[in-house]
Design a protein that fits this description.
single chain; alpha/beta; six-stranded mixed β-sheet; three-stranded antiparallel β-sheet
Length: 310
């Protein structure tokens, strides 16, 4: 939760068109992420930054190329996409509140370092390798763009779709709101999305349904402190194929599950772009992970997203 020093300065951002709500991260964002990183022992210390015209245009074009239904849903809740460095992840999203606790909207902070020199497939491959420590001749490659579209704009679009999933989950009763404590949780069936893959246990913890609680799920850590080895890549994705998560990142929490499902659905189904993971050993294919939205295990999530997005 980001507390606004001046609520009016944030609220006036809604007067701008959606594609103009871009710029350096406000100090409140930097302070908030710094505090979170310190609490979680993440070494990065964020700072606000300006970007060149080319980067700014790539961000704007990435949003402009999203489906109209996505842009329409964002218009009244997204306070903007702000630029920073050393966030500790590709981006963060959080609610902004006034000093009195009134929710003003949701803001996305984008880590410029993660995208300045990476194309779509390079960024996706880098990110999807972070849960695994390098080992021998095991490799994982990710494809989210065709060769002719493999550019920075494609990387930014997929990342922003993920963050916009967080933005659009806020206050919609799809999930419990991430900024509230566990005691505010209602029953799982009181939420539209949560019970499709998760349940609430007796200790008020959101845990995966039995079919989604695969053995390596607890070892999935993105960006910091890989707990799995390269030799476990194929095993992790083979186990994922038995669950109803769209991506490996989706298995880490219910909030990441919705954000990844949203991003993957818009990317692969609505925009018709590729989304494939290939795991190889010494050049030989061990496993290919794709086609999630054509598989029966996606049916319930697909139906919900069709209702949300049209």
């Amino acid at each position: 939760m980001i507390v606004a020093a001046d609520a009016a300065q944030w609220e006036q951002l809604y007067d701008l068109p959606l594609l103009e709500r871009l710029g350096p991260a406000q100090q409140e964002i930097v302070t908030h992420v710094t505090q979170v990183n310190l609490a979680m022992d993440v070494p990065q210390r964020p700072s606000s930054t300006e970007v060149d015209d080319g980067f700014q245009e790539d961000v704007r074009a990435a949003i402009a190329a999203m489906p109209a239904s996505v842009q329409a849903l964002l218009d009244g809740v997204l306070l903007g996409v702000r630029h920073a460095r050393q966030l500790g992840s590709s981006a963060i999203s959080d609610i902004v509140v006034s000093g009195e606790g009134v929710i003003l909207g949701v803001v996305v902070a984008l880590d410029v370092d993660a995208f300045e020199s990476r194309t779509a497939n390079a960024w996706a491959t880098w990110k999807e390798n972070t849960p695994f420590a390098p080992e021998g001749a095991y490799t994982l490659s990710a494809q989210i763009a065709l060769p002719e579209d493999d550019n920075r704009q494609g990387a930014l679009q997929y990342l922003l779709l993920h963050e916009f999933g967080h933005v659009l989950s806020a206050g919609r009763n799809l999930l419990h709101d991430w900024w509230l404590d566990a005691q505010s949780l209602r029953g799982a069936d009181d939420y539209h999305y949560l019970p499709l893959a998760w349940r609430i246990d007796a200790e008020k913890k959101v845990v995966p349904l039995a079919q989604n609680a695969f053995a390596l799920r607890g070892d999935i850590v993105y960006y910091h402190g890989a707990r799995m080895q390269g030799s476990q890549m194929a095993q992790a994705y083979a186990q994922l194929q038995g669950a109803n998560f769209a991506t490996l990142y989706a298995a880490t929490s219910v909030h990441e599950d919705f954000a990844e499902s949203f991003a993957s659905y818009v990317h692969a189904v609505m925009l018709g772009k590729p989304q494939t993971i290939r795991i190889e050993h010494d050049g030989a294919l061990l496993l290919r992970f794709d086609g999630y939205w054509e598989s029966p295990r996606s049916a319930a999530k697909r139906a919900l997203l069709e209702r949300l997005l049209g």
